[in-house]
Amino acid sequence: QVQLVESGGDLVQPGGSLRLSCAASGFIFSKIAMSWYRRAPGKARELVAGISNDGGTTNYADSVKGRFTISRDNAKNTVYLQMNSLKPEDTAVYYCYFRVFRDFWGQGTQVTVSS
Question: Is 42 left (phi over 0), alpha (psi -120 to 50) or beta?
Answer without folding.
Answer: left
